[in-house]
Amino acid sequence: MEILAHDILIVGAGLAGLRATISAAETSNKIDIAVISKLHPIRSHSVCAQGGTAAVMNEKDSFDLHAYDTVKGADFLADQDVVEFFVRQAPKEIILLEHWGLPWSRTPEGKIDQRPFGGHSFPRACFAADMTGFYEMHTLYGKAITYENVKFYDEFFATSLIVENNAVAGLTAIDLKTGELVAFKAKAIVMATGGHERIYEFTTFSHPSTGDGMAMAYRAGAPLEDMEFVQFHPTGLVPSGVLITEGARGEGGYLINALGERFMQRYAPKMMELAPRDVVARAEQKEINEGRGFTGPYGPYIALDLTHLGEEKINERLPLIRDVAKRLGGVDPVKEPIPVRPAAHYSMGGIKANIRTETPIRGLYAAGECACYSLHGANRLGTNSTAECLVFGGVAGEEAAKYAMSTNFQEFSKERVIAEEKRIYDGILGREGDERVPQLREEMRKIMDKKVGIFRVENELKSALKEIRDIKERFRNIRVEDKSKTFNTGLTTALELDFMLDLAEVTIISALARTESRGAHSRLDYPERDDKNWLVHTLAYYTVDGPKLDYIPVTITKWQPAARKY
Ligand SMILES: Cc1cc2nc3c(=O)[nH]c(=O)nc-3n(C[C@H](O)[C@H](O)[C@H](O)COP(=O)(O)OP(=O)(O)OC[C@H]3O[C@@H](n4cnc5c(N)ncnc54)[C@H](O)[C@@H]3O)c2cc1C
């Protein structure tokens, strides 16, 4: 078995991982940096980001306004010191990307243009048409590959973290081309492995968004924070779930029910369709549940009408949306409304990290969607995520580099790697049971959609927990049909399902415990927000008997919790 060594390992090459790579390389050209990604970097989900990246770029806007919008959007569960730091850093990232060559959309005077987005009280989404993530990813990747001290391991699938004495020592990964397990030694590791939305069936996320890094950190002893908060985006295209950006509403699109009503008038009379996502998604689901959705072959839906924007504006501002709606929805938004319904879209929770992206495991950092430094609290505002990946990816790269320069490699025994080899090849690949991974995965996703969705109640959560635990048992009895080594996607999808089942369990247990409604966590049996008992973050720790929960306070600097009206 091969053992490689690098000072820093960055796991994940989406926006957060690439930004961390550049930042680490800029911190010192003497440290040896490796980027491990199960996909070619440009296939990371970040490339799908559409609508924009939030930053205060206009003198009429202000840091306090962006911070307050974020805190209010978060239903007051965000750590306000983190939010204040974030809003101040975000504009610097926009300028950096500009200097590195990103073609931001422009105003007629040639300035970086900004469009309105949900929950933001000022138009502060910088964008590149409706393909912002695509341009950001290409800009960062183009920059990251220029450093001589950075090596990319594309199509390496990380399977476990190696931690000794609560400090990172390295990790194990499968080289997908050969199928061999490789061990990496490292002084510092940055987790930047993205979200876990694929635990749901109707989702805007790509197939590889299976939360691997969250599960690896959890199993290695780092707590997962606020996992009950899963964002549902109001406009997943029916039937695929592919995202129709909030930018479509930012440009003036609106939502109608089967009676032809702009129903958001009843739910958010001031901000209407541009209220935060939790509010709009709940409103849509209520319209559907009460029988005012359109009926279609794929179930009830809501219509997103852009027809009044006209062909020229749609082609200029939303070319991808037009293309996607035509190809995958069978409608041309210039001529007819787009069928949509809420889709799982973001994980507010993740690996617990502090404002410097440090996790409770020494030398382990987390950034981007897999992390939770509690910037988004109970509900993230659109465009704050790409901005977060840039800001905190940058922080993580620098912190990891400084730490790596100050420390030595931790030794770890070969037994650790041999045990992991056994788990994967004898355990998962060697099993000869009669359960099939795709079947179990589909069952898990249906349970999560049905019982751990927008509206939650105790008995459904309990039954979901039981069913997920049953699937975990059945997973012991799988058979992966393909026993070969090269690019064995049967094996990697089994490993991904194993990770996802842990995350589904944590999500449900955290949701069961939180007996209030806040942000994206809406309990029909506890409809009110309860600041007296629940203005706290959930921490879930791995134990062999399942997740153990603990709670820590929310950091409040300036803004006391207030009623949330839009
Ligand atoms: C369709 C869509 C549109 C969006 N639009 C916007 C928007 O306009 N504005 C906004 O702010 N946010 C948007 N978001 C959210 C935002 O894009 C994501 O939250 C963000 O890009 C996540 O970036 P990341 O770097 O954390 O992870 P990702 O981009 O998901 O990258 C994860 C990386 O981890 C690697 N990885 C994962 N597991 C392993 C493993 N086991 N071993 C090795 N490597 C692994 C992958 O290969 C990949 O490189 C959108 C999301 C979607 C789905």
Characterization of this structure:
- The chain is of the alpha/beta class.
- It folds into three domains: 2-229 and 348-405, FAD/NAD(P)-binding domain; 233-343, Flavocytochrome C3, Chain A, domain 1 (Alpha-Beta Complex), CATH 3.90.700.10; 414-522, Fumarate reductase/succinate dehydrogenase flavoprotein-like, C-terminal domain (Methane Monooxygenase Hydroxylase, Chain G, domain 1).
- The protein has helices spanning 15-27, 63-73, 80-99, 132-144, 212-219, 247-250, 264-267, 277-289, 311-317, 319-329, 384-405, 414-428, 437-451, 458-475, 489-513, 531-534, and strands spanning 2-11, 33-37, 53-54, 114-115, 125-126, 150-154, 156-164, 167-175, 180-191, 224-225, 230-237, 254-256, 302-305, 338-347, 350-352, 364-366, 371-372, 455-456, 522-523, 536-541, 548-553.
- The chain contains 16 helices and 21 strands.
- The mean pLDDT is 97.
- The strands form five sheets. Strands 1, 2, 6, 7, 8, 9 and 16 form a seven-stranded mixed beta sheet that branches. A five-stranded mixed beta sheet has the order 17-15-10-20-21.
- The termini are far apart.
- The protein binds flavin-adenine dinucleotide.
Précis, in short:
With 566 residues, the chain is α/β, with parallel strands linked by helices. Strand 8 and strand 9 form a beta hairpin.
